[in-house]
Amino acid sequence: MVDLAQLRICFIAGCLGQGGAERQLYYMLRALRSEGVAPNLLSLTKGEYWEEKIRELGVPVTWVGRRSSRLGRLAQIISTARKHKPEIIQSQHFFTNLYAVGTARALRIREIGAIRNNVASEVRSNGPLLGRLSVRMPHVLAANSRQAVKTAVELGVPKSRLEYLPNAVDTDAFEPPAAGRPGTEPLRLLCVGRLVPQKRVDVFLEAVARLRNHSEAPVEAVIIGDGPDRAGLERQAAELDLLPETVEFRGAISDMAAVYEESDILVLTSDWEGTPNVLLEAMACGLPVVATRVGGVPDLVREGVTGFCAEPGDVDTLVDHLSRLCRRAELRAECGRQARQHVLENHSCTRLSACLQSLYEATLS
């Protein structure tokens, strides 16, 4: 059995901005520090959101993105990692997997690659050669959804090299409001994510427009996030006559707990995902969920229990599910209660140390 406190681990991250992978990195480092581990972090970027918070954990953060070429960065990563004498180097982003592989080969240690999404989209976004190498070369791959494990196997990765590392959520920071939800109208639908094509916020807006016109219960919607599609989405909202009374674009927000507290239903309309942090956070806060059936979402959203699923782009089914939840306050409350319980049992940060223990034992075996 691996003694976590004696294990020397070096992480490599492609960025430390306000994304789900970066939040999960923070949770992992916090769990390791609580077990007496002294990890190090190498980052290709500097000065981003999570950097200072990670330093506050007592984890050294070293910038290794000075050089512009991949080979130059790899040389700097190897040189920096060598000083820490790690037993394992762990990639936190899919696009840093090959840096972890190259460093591990140079230092004769073990590496862990990351699958943060649905594999196919990650391979596609990194190009046919680098994408396939990034999924095939790591000694061990940690995937945050069982669907990603299945897809990687279909791409030729031996199942013995794949480990399921579930995303975690801080269930103390994200919890239902102490006073309960007021249950007053209009009901508030919440959409959270970067405003990029993957998230299909256009589908969310179309669903809101139909609900406003046909639902028995009045609704309003809040969109949290920013990105290159924002201007186009605001135009769509205006064309659907949703601005300013029905839909509010709030941009990116760091304190999400308060946003979940004032919402009634979380809606996720993505075309692809891994295990979305936003679902875990919303469910931990006792929100029912209506989401597309992608990636690890079906493991979280159990039909009629914690929420409802629809196929990507299926606006009709999304509207049907939302109408049902909007009409039935008792169904919203029960789905929210079950959602919270599911997260407590399967995705709480309190389970993270044991999950990491299992991952590192598999890596070193």
Describe this entry's structure for a reader.
It is built from 15 helices and 13 strands. The protein has 365 residues and is an alpha/beta fold. The strands form 2 sheets. A 7-stranded parallel sheet has the order 3-2-1-4-5-6-7, with helices on both faces. α12 (297-300) links the parallel β12 (289-292) and β13. α3 packs across α4 and α8 crosses α13 (315-327). The model has no long low-confidence stretch (mean pLDDT 95).
Compute the separation of the termini in Å. 10 Å
- Count helical runs: 15
Name of the level-1 CATH class of the largest domain: Alpha Beta
Structural class: alpha/beta
The gross shape turns out to be: globular
Question: CATH superfamily assignment of the largest domain?
Answer: Glycogen Phosphorylase B
Order of helices and strands: EHEHEHEHEHHEHEEHEHEHEHEHEHHH
Number of strands: 13
List keywords for this structure.
365 residues, Rossmann fold, seven-stranded parallel beta sheet, six-stranded parallel beta sheet
Q: What is the strand and helix layout of this fold?
A:
Elements: E1 9-13, H1 20-34, E2 40-43, H2 49-56, E3 61-63, H3 70-84, E4 88-91, H4 97-107, E5 110-115, H5 120-125, H6 128-136, E6 140-143, H7 146-154, E7 162-164, E8 187-192, H8 201-214, E9 219-224, H9 230-239, E10 247-251, H10 256-261, E11 265-268, H11 277-284, E12 289-292, H12 297-300, E13 307-310, H13 315-327, H14 329-346, H15 352-364
Parallel strand pairs: 1-2, 1-4, 2-3, 4-5, 5-6, 6-7, 8-9, 8-11, 9-10, 11-12, 12-13
What's this, in brief?
This protein has 15 helices and 13 strands. The chain is of the alpha/beta class.
